[in-house]
Amino acid sequence: MARAVKYGEGREVLIESAVRVVAEKGLRGLTFRAVAERAQVNNSLVAHHFGNREALLSAALEWAVERSIALTRLPDFESEEGFADALLTSIRSSPELQAFQYEMILEARRNPVFRAPVEHLYRRYAEAMQQGLLHLGYDENSEGPSRHAFAALDGLVLQYMAGVEESSIRAGLADLWHGLVARAPRTAAN
């Protein structure tokens, strides 16, 4: 049964539903009908907003990245504990965001349509990481360290999603934090 969606909210409800469908069923499970059922709306609304599956997935990837960055507070970390807690809390509270992004990363390997959106995903995370490094005394030109740090975070998040013990992930986050602080041009945080 279709539900009433307030004007201006339909697109976001559909995007969030697409993320959840892919996280639960994989990309093969993503159809306009599955998204509409999840959102409890008529499936013509999906076609109206996105036109095709690729447009829906690209919009969902952009939404998932921005939401994930906001939840992790990646640009705002100032302490080891805050850094680890924010990341782990965001993964625990919204694992579908991570699962969806990993599905899209793998799909980009098979489907060139998604290569640019996935490249954008990595650019956005590197930018957010670079903003976070400013708190540690890195300058605005810290693209290398931000990419390296995000690569480590990406791996730790993937391990967490695969079921590695949280204590191991927390230890990896602590090691990453201490490495970033030790290599900071001037130490602004401990």
Task: Explain what this protein looks like in three dimensions.
The protein has 190 residues and is mainly alpha-helical. Helices cover 73% and strands 0% of the residues. Helix 4 crosses helix 6 and helix 7 (115-134) packs across helix 8 (143-161). It is elongated and about 55 Å long. The mean pLDDT is 90.
The rounded distance between the terminal residues' Cα atoms is: 54 Å
**Low-pLDDT residue spans:** none
Strand content: under 5%
Number of strands: 0
| H/I helix tally | 9
The level of helicity is over 70%
Output the radius of gyration: 18 Å
Shape: elongated
What does this entry show, briefly?
The chain has 190 residues and is mainly alpha-helical.
